[in-house]
Write a structure and sequence with these properties.
The chain is of the alpha/beta class. The chain has helices at residues 17-30, 45-49, 61-65, 95-99, 108-112, 115-118, 134-142, 156-173, 193-206, 219-223, 231-234, 239-256, and strands spanning 4-8, 35-39, 76-77, 83-86, 123-127, 145-151, 179-188, 210-216.
Length: 259
């Protein structure tokens, strides 16, 4: 059976996409899922945050999309049991320019996700770059759903409308099965009135699309990437770790519900 493929996307930078990819991936693995993360961000932070050094990245998602290399040739195991990654480097930053002349440019990732290799995984998470470029559109064309990290800040909902429009366009032109998996509130601080107001607005506008789980502002969560570990390894008892375990359980429970 084909694994569920989820693109983690938001064109705004610094909202917690990569943090969510790393820590949701690790939490899903802790819940018994075999997880593959596909790093589509030229910064390669998901790869770094899972302990994949630059000299280990002989082949990357650039080779997957541009050179036509097979997925199984680039995927690497991480230190987390049942969690693998297709790493990225800055080579990927030129992908938009190199892909623009390719008639199949929107479907390259979809074509690269060979069923015979993916059958060993339960969930695939795609860490998208902070823009609505060809890499993000490739992820949406290949995905079953989009998970949106939404930072609880003043302009959070304004940028969301553009993302929703892109999702609708991809659904109409390239991937009719695409849907919104959910919206997760990140960098949440209960003591902050603005955070609470953004949450109220998000739930009023988006309803059940907003996960019950909120990802808190948490020092240990911020520290973990510098040690190349997900929070579940770095500090399993922290609030950040508890939040991502809770989110993983929500993701799995929604997956079991009928579409």
């Amino acid at each position: 059976m084909r694994p569920r493929c989820i693109a983690i996307a938001n064109q705004k930078g610094g909202v917690g996409k990569t943090t969510t990819a790393i820590n949701l991936g690790a939490a899903l693995a802790a819940e018994g899922q075999r997880v593959l993360i596909i790093d589509l961000d030229p910064q390669g932070n998901a790869s770094t945050g899972l302990g994949i050094d630059a000299d280990q990245r002989n082949y990357t998602t650039y080779d997957l999309l541009i050179e036509g290399m097979a997925l199984q040739e680039i995927v690497l195991p991480t230190e987390v049991e049942d969690l693998w990654i297709a790493p990225a480097t800055t080579d990927l930053s030129s992908a938009d320019v190199e892909l623009v002349a390719n008639e199949n440019r929107v479907f390259l990732l979809k074509d690269a996700l060979a069923p015979e290799f993916l059958h060993g995984f339960d969930i695939v998470l795609m860490d998208c770059p902070p823009s609505l470029n060809l890499l993000t559109v490739n992820a949406m064309a290949a995905a079953d759903a989009v998970l949106v990290p939404l930072q609880t800040e003043f302009f959070a909902l304004e940028g969301l409308s553009q993302l929703m429009m892109t999702i609708r366009e991809v659904r109409q032109s390239a991937n009719p099965r695409l849907r919104i998996e959910g919206v997760v509130l990140t960098m949440f601080d209960m003591r902050n009135n603005l955070c609470r107001q953004v949450e109220e607005d998000a739930r009023a506008n988006l309803g059940e699309l907003v996960y019950e789980t909120r990802i808190p502002r948490n020092v240990r969560l911020s520290e973990a990437p510098s040690y190349a570990m997900p929070i579940l390894q770095y500090d399993p008892n922290s609030r950040g770790s508890e939040a991502y375990i809770s989110l993983a359980r929500e993701v799995l429970s929604r997956q079991m519900q009928p579409a």
